[in-house]
Design brief:
single chain, EC 6.1.1.11, aminoacyl-trna synthetase, coiled coil, 12 helices, 21% strand, RNA-binding, Helix Hairpins, ATP binding, alpha+beta
Length: 427
RNA sequence: GGAAGGGUGGCAGAGCGGUUGAAUGCACCGGUCUUGAAAACCGGCGAUGGGUAAUUCCAUCCGUGGGUUCAAAUCCCACCCCUUCCGCCA
């Protein structure tokens, strides 16, 4: 969430940075449009309430002293009875105003970093760099490759759970596990991340800390009858590991990698990527998370993105990196790079990782803070990125490794994780 | 699921309803002493919001939310979490 002092101090600049996301973000009826008035009202009520409370505290102390000396305090008692009931009324109003302000505050997205390119849609995203030489011959879609090899079973997924669920068998199941292990080993051993294993469900506070709630409830699966949600990404539990903590500046940066399953309702994406395993309700992902000094947020983003890219380079999969434009950057993010892998069957690059810096937005929201020597606690910066989405990676391996005889060559770095298997062939 | 106990500052751990934001110890920071270090001694050491030019002042915070009272860490109610025992179970 945005800084409350900055709301008053830098109103114009903040509004301009928000408006780049689209006029609706700051337009009539937006949370932002109501925010300043709600802030004023809350503070005004609070000031009144505090003045009365100070009076009450002062006289109550006096009553205590008088009683201690055995003196009569009935006059003060009577007067404070009235003050007390007024405090109660004012307090209720103050709390109401505070709740309205807080609710609006949680709906305001992160003001964009100045280096985010302008744009009106994802078509305006800016390509930063490319790696590898894409193959341009005719390659079947991964669902055909997988079905022909007998390793992807879409009917079984539909039978067990419904659409957007898949069963992987044999080499595909093994490949899913191999990718997971390879990625975790790479980040833990070569990139210096501490591996963590976390719950795949999270409560409301945790979901709010990273920004999934309150605004995006329809994207989440909620456990019936409980205040628990299935996580849409490991970002949620891993970042929130530090919620309401004050870290010493010497402990920064914290860098974690984690494997988790991810669950997304995909509300609003009906009809998109309905075939294959590009868009599933449940998928596996290895995530990278940084908790860092705000001064390092942007340089860490470059590092984190490079760590995610290293996975694709090791797998020898061609990709490109794009900077998301103003219209496409997510709610909590101040700047995002997407990594897109080459899918020969579609003859285009498709998202396989999204790396974002959140600045202090999540730190403020989740109470993740750090203290510099002799200084006050301040919100830490957070970042995260997929390193990588495993299902989509498997798609890329199948398509990029496909041979005209129908088999698939397994990237060399994965073979140790595949029991030495060098290629997948039909049984 | 049943029973019992417990949630207080970075940690440990006190706290008859009234000058307690909270004893004490540890940790941490500064100083004295020392060639240096340790020990000892002295001093300091929570967060959030708000007011002021400023030393500073005001309010809130003892798991969470309500309630009683002039006044709540302290009394009452509900909920959450943790520990132990029993039951069930991968």
């Amino acid at each position: 969430m945005i800084d409350r002092q900055a709301l008053r101090r830098d109103f114009e600049a903040m509004q301009a940075a928000l408006a780049r996301r689209g006029e609706a973000v700051v337009g009539d009826g937006s949370a932002w449009a109501r925010l300043r008035e709600l802030d004023d009202r809350q503070r005004q009520l609070k000031n009144e309430s505090e003045a009365l409370q100070a009076e009450r505290n002062r006289v109550s102390k006096l009553i205590g002293m008088k009683k201690g000396k055995g003196e009569d305090a009935s006059e003060e008692l009577h007067a404070m009875g009235e003050v007390s009931s007024r405090v109660k009324e004012l307090d209720a109003l103050t709390r109401e105003a505070e709740a309205l302000f807080a609710a609006a505050l949680l709906e305001v997205p992160n003001p964009l970093h100045e280096t985010v390119p302008d744009g009106a849609s994802e078509d305006d995203n800016v390509e930063i760099r490319r790696w590898g030489a894409p193959r341009t011959d005719e390659v079947p879609a991964h669902w055909d490759i997988g079905t022909d090899l007998g390793i992807l079973d879409f009917d079984a997924g539909a039978m067990l759970a419904g659409s957007r669920f898949t069963v992987m068998k044999g080499a595909a199941a093994r490949l899913e596990r191999a990718l997971m292990q390879f990625m975790l080993d790479l980040h833990a051993d070569k990139h210096g991340y501490e591996e963590v294993w976390v719950p795949a469900m999270a409560n409301r506070k945790t979901m709010t800390g990273t920004g999934q709630l309150p605004k995006f409830a329809e994207d989440l699966y909620k456990i019936e009858g409980e205040e628990l949600f299935l996580i849409p990404t490991a970002e949620v539990p891993v970042t929130n590991l530090y919620q309401d903590k004050i870290l010493d500046v010497a402990e920064l940066p914290k860098r974690h990698c984690a494997y988790t399953p991810c669950f997304r309702s995909e509300a609003g994406s009906a009809g998109r990527d309905v075939r294959g395993i590009i868009r599933q309700h449940q998928f596996d992902k290895v995530e990278l998370v940084h908790i860092t000094h705000p001064d390092r947020a942007l340089s860490d983003l470059e590092e984190l993105t490079a760590h995610a890219e290293a996975v694709l380079q090791a797998l020898e999969l061609p990709y490109r990196v794009v900077a998301l434009c103003a219209a496409d950057v997510g709610f909590s993010s101040q700047k995002t790079y997407d990594i897109e892998v080459w899918l020969p069957s579609q003859r285009c690059y498709r998202e396989i990782s999204s790396c974002s810096s959140f600045g202090q937005f999540q730190g403020r929201r989740a109470g993740i803070r750090f203290r510099e020597e002799g200084g006050k606690p301040q919100p830490a910066a957070t970042l995260n990125g997929s390193g990588l989405a495993i299902g989509r990676c498997l798609v890329a391996v199948l398509e990029n490794g496909w041979q005209s005889d129908g088999s698939v060559v397994i990237p060399a770095v994965l073979r140790p994780y595949m029991g030495g298997m060098e290629r997948i062939v039909a049984k």
